[in-house]
Amino acid sequence: MSLQDRIINHFTDNIQTQQQSIAGLCELIEYASQRMVNALLNDKKILACGNGFSATTVQLLVAAMLNQFERDRPSLPAIALNTDAVTLTAIANDYHFDDIFAKQVRALGQNGDILLVYTESDHCSNIAKAISAAHDKDISVIALTGDNNGMLSPLLHETDIEVRVPAQSCARIHETHVLITHCLCDLIDHQLFG
User: Fold this and answer.
1) Residue 51 CB coordination number (10 Å)
2) Phi-psi region at 117: left, alpha or beta (left = phi > 0; alpha = psi -120 to 50)
3) Is 151 in a helix, a strand, or coil?
4) Which whole number is the average pLDDT over 189-193?
5) Model confidence pLDDT, tens digit, residues 12-32
6) Cα–Cα distance for residue pair 31/60, rounded to 1 Å
7) Is 63 exposed, middle or buried (0-12, 13-18, 19+ CB in 10 A)?
8) How far apart are CA 21 and CA 158, in angstroms?
């Protein structure tokens, strides 16, 4: 297979994943945006976390919330739980890596906030603990996952939302999570600011 064929395969796989996502995820993305808007209108905040590549998507979301997405507007309250290296390593060192997000959720989260979690793999026990901590504080969870992630679904409550990308490839899941994040940012801006 030539290098150009490999490139074409990446683009083709991405397009197919996006097309499958359109059919099954539009309503869930809309509902997730409405849940986030409701929290923001009630002076609550968005807490977000993810590991590895997902951590970059968390930062993308939080930067768009705190600064702007595609238009100038007031800042919206959001916190990326995966960006403070000192806090993360202190918790991992003194307790366990699985606790790096849960301890922050317990300290920073309030009833009515939203915990938005991103994961493209099933290796996410720290995300699982964050979800449990959120539930303990009556914080709703929105989980962006993929088809290779069966660990989180059983942890979610009926009132939580799972936006499951129909793909097994971590690359395709991550790419789609970025697009979903852009959709969420746009829908939040549209609902709040017209």
Assistant:
1) 20
2) beta
3) coil
4) 96
5) 999 999 999 998 999 999 999
6) 20
7) middle
8) 22
Could you please state the CATH topology (level 3) that the domain comprising 3-193 is classified under.
Rossmann fold (3.40.50)
Residues 63 and 54: their CA atoms lie apart, in Å, by 14
**In the chain, what are the helix, strand and coil shares in percent, each to the nearest 5?**
60, 15, 30
The pLDDT value given to residue 149: 67
Amino acid at 114: I
Pairing of strands 140-146, 161-165: parallel
Residue 16, token pair as written in the block: 């197919």
Tokens read off for 133: 């901590």
DSSP state of 97: G
Q: Using CA of residue 114, residue 162, residue 19, residue 173, what is the dihedral sign?
A: positive
Per the CB < 8 A criterion, the answer to whether 111 and 85 are in contact is no
Over residues 25-56, the pLDDT tens digits come to 999 999 999 999 999 999 999 999 999 999 99
The predicted pLDDT at position 111 comes to: 97
**What gap in Å lies between CA 60 and CA 66, rounded to an integer?**
10
CA distance 149 to 119: 8
Q: How confident is the model at residue 148 (pLDDT cuts 50, 70, 90)?
A: confident
